[in-house]
Design a protein that fits this description.
Length: 332
């Protein structure tokens, strides 16, 4: 038997949707639930060739940028496994909104720390697993916060229950459980890979405040003082605006913020079966160590050849000097 209260809830949700208002959960909160694609061709920082250009001038210019990104994806052979995404509806040329130049405001120490952080696009030592990026070690891999767009496994699911929101990312299949009551953050001595999140509603926007990060994460050179504030706003039935602000005086000269959009999808999410200490790590380390050993042998070989050439030249010079000296003695 269908309860009258359930029928009333369905009628109210349908009425709100028809009126253009955000759909709401049974407890009256804006409904952010579902699977969303977090993919974009817009980079975090504004590219050098778009310096000084905060927005694309026209939708056609933005589409040309999208086509260029898709061609690059195909050229890299990733089109079967990745989402190229689109330019945001605002036509911004960077995810970063402030500072206005679209660049991360690194401090000297923050830049130094970020440059020393292992990433998948850098050449890293292979002495042990600690030398490798956290993503290779299957510990954290972009599951946020902040939730930056990605090409591979860009899906996330939002679920809501009275008093809590859960944000499940497909990459590393991490579920971030966000309490919505007034409880304080955990003790400052406790540090976690993805920090400690607390949420609240600001009108129809979900605001999530996260602190207590581990200094091992080093998001863009951050320290354990990293503080992230996220804002989730459903702008229509198929789009969710995501905004974030980053603070860390030990890494950045000022707070900086960004904005992107999630697109609603009916696609399924799959488990990203990756765990710390898996077989791939053993192969990465043994293969890398073999490469480094071969490189050392080549260097020694080059040193040996160069050393031999130097000795030969020295011997030749010595012989020439001896002949000149002998000739001079005969003349005298």
């Amino acid at each position: 038997m269908v309860r009258p209260a359930a029928i009333l809830t369905l009628v109210l949700l349908a009425t709100a949707a028809a009126a253009g208002q955000p759909a709401r959960t049974a407890d009256g909160q804006p409904d952010l639930q579902g699977v969303w694609i977090n993919a974009s061709v817009t980079s975090l920082e504004r590219p050098a060739d778009l310096a000084g250009k905060e927005f694309f001038s026209t939708a056609e210019e933005a589409r040309a940028w999208e086509e260029k990104a898709l061609k690059n994806l195909i050229a890299e052979g990733d089109e079967a496994f990745a989402e190229s995404g689109t330019v945001a509806p605002t036509l911004r040329t960077s995810i970063i909104v402030t500072p206005a130049d679209g660049r991360i405001p690194y401090s000297a120490e923050g830049r130094k720390r970020w440059d020393a952080t292992p990433t998948v696009t850098r050449t890293n030592p292979t002495t042990g697993p600690e030398d490798r990026p956290l993503s290779e070690r299957c510990i954290v891999w972009g599951e946020g916060p902040p939730l930056l767009p990605r090409r591979n496994n860009p899906y996330l699911r939002i679920a809501q229950a009275p008093g809590h929101v859960v944000i499940l990312t497909e990459m590393i299949h991490h579920a971030r459980i966000v309490p919505l009551d007034d409880r304080p953050h955990i003790d400052a001595r406790i540090r976690q890979w993805v920090g400690d999140s607390r949420g609240r509603w600001d009108g129809d926007t979900l605001v999530v405040d996260t602190t207590n990060f581990s200094d091992k994460v080093a998001f863009r050179g951050s320290t354990d003082a990293l503080h992230v504030v996220e804002r989730f706003t459903r702008v229509d039935g198929n789009r969710l605006r995501y905004q974030f602000t980053i603070e860390d005086p030990g890494a950045f000269t000022q707070p900086w913020s960004g904005e992107t959009y999630f697109e609603r999808t009916d696609a399924r999410m799959f488990e990203y079966a990756c765990h710390e200490g898996n077989r791939s790590m053993e192969l990465i380390l043994t293969g890398g160590q073999a490469e480094q050993a071969a490189l050392r042998r080549r260097k020694l070989s080059r040193i040996g050849i160069a050393g031999g050439a130097v000795l030969a030249l020295a011997a030749l010079g010595y012989a020439v000097r001896r002949r000149r000296s002998a000739a001079a003695e005969k003349i005298s």
